[in-house]
């Protein structure tokens, strides 16, 4: 099968990529191209897709080889990047997509990629070429900003937000790499909070044994004001934001703290720690947001509770949704974060009707 003008999913047989492929296949997007270094895994995924759907093919692509990457993107009208870890891939796939004349969606990407693509007038090149690049189209960041934006849009005067995001889940090596490297000022500030339009450092302490509806057991909540949370606060005009990363098991948190203290770069111990947590506590993931409308006194005015078996299917949901919005022309040329160009209300409604998660607004 020729793959001219294909929608190519790089890392399409991974935990997130396979979810994207299944969703785009179900939506009738064609032709589809499942790309990555392991052609056998791509072919196995394709063999498991429902018969009678759109054309799908496998392609061997090494993202560390510029010629291989350019050959792939030259045959695509849209590239969806699900390969990782994001902080090693950085902007290499996005730039290859632009060279090949393709639009681009990244299930991760985040601030480091946005900064690289926007440096020295780089974002303008996407506009001039008539192409869109949509970054952070995953569960976190991505849904973690869209869902509270939808909640805030229902309020008359949102003044405060508390967020709890995380759980217990196995880590793929790529996801472990993103967790390990996701630190520093381009990602966020530990123990900080957003107060009165600015970041306040060392404002919060960890919360132990917290019970929340998004999680089936008590959790530890570690304050971390991400750059995404700051963008959310500014976009929604919320004066106080307290953002917590949730750990449902102790081993991953311990191993991550040790790796950061030693400035480690190997992911094997993180993967093993996450697996141990899953064996002890099961696998589950959640996001819960508490919003105060008008005043911060008393309990929150509204809550949004998301429960899911894991975050990978959620990332596939949003990345596929962003791809469909690019394909239907909803997103204009330029470089964006998904939360800034997708409709929060539409995403929330679609997710509430999807089997990837259970979502309630209370």
UniProtKB/TrEMBL annotation:
<feature type="domain" description="Saccharopine dehydrogenase NADP binding">
    <location>
        <begin position="8"/>
        <end position="109"/>
    </location>
</feature>
<dbReference type="Pfam" id="PF03435">
    <property type="entry name" value="Sacchrp_dh_NADP"/>
</dbReference>
<dbReference type="InterPro" id="IPR005097">
    <property type="entry name" value="Sacchrp_dh_NADP-bd"/>
</dbReference>
<protein>
    <submittedName>
        <fullName>Saccharopine dehydrogenase NADP-binding domain-containing protein</fullName>
    </submittedName>
</protein>
<dbReference type="InterPro" id="IPR036291">
    <property type="entry name" value="NAD(P)-bd_dom_sf"/>
</dbReference>
């Amino acid at each position: 099968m020729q793959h001219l003008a294909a929608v190519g999913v790089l890392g399409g047989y991974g935990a997130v990529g396979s979810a994207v492929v299944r969703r785009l296949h179900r939506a009738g997007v064609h032709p589809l191209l499942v790309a990555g270094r392991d052609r056998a895994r791509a072919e196995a995924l394709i063999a498991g897709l429902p018969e009678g759907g759109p054309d799908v093919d496998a392609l061997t692509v090494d993202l560390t080889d510029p010629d291989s990457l350019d050959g792939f993107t030259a045959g695509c009208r849209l590239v969806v990047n699900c390969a990782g870890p994001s902080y090693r891939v950085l902007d290499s796939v996005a730039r290859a997509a632009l060279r090949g004349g393709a639009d681009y969606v990244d299930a991760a990407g985040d601030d480091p990629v946005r900064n690289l693509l926007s440096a020295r007038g780089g974002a303008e090149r996407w506009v001039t070429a008539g192409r869109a690049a949509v970054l952070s189209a995953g569960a976190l960041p991505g849904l973690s900003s869209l869902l509270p934006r939808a909640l805030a849009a229902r309020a008359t005067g949102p003044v405060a937000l508390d967020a709890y995001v995380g759980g217990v889940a196995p880590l793929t090596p790529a996801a472990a790499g993103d967790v390990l490297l996701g630190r520093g000022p381009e990602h966020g500030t530990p123990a900080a909070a957003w107060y009165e339009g600015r970041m306040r450092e060392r404002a919060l302490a960890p919360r132990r044994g917290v019970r929340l509806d998004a999680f089936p057991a008590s959790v530890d909540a570690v304050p971390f004001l991400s750059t995404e949370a700051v963008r959310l606060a500014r976009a929604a005009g919320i004066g106080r934001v307290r953002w917590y990363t949730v750990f449902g098991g102790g081993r991953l948190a311990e191993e991550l703290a040790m790796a950061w203290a030693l400035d480690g770069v190997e992911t094997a111990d993180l993967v093993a720690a996450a697996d141990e947590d899953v064996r002890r506590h099961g696998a589950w993931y959640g996001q819960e947001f508490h919003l105060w409308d008008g005043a911060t006194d008393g309990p929150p005015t509204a809550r949004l509770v998301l429960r899911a078996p894991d975050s990978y299917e959620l990332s596939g949901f949003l990345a596929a949704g962003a791809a469909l919005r690019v394909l239907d022309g909803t997103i204009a040329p330029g470089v964006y974060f998904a939360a800034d160009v997708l409709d929060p209300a539409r995403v929330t409604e679609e997710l509430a009707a999807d089997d990837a998660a259970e979502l309630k607004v209370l």
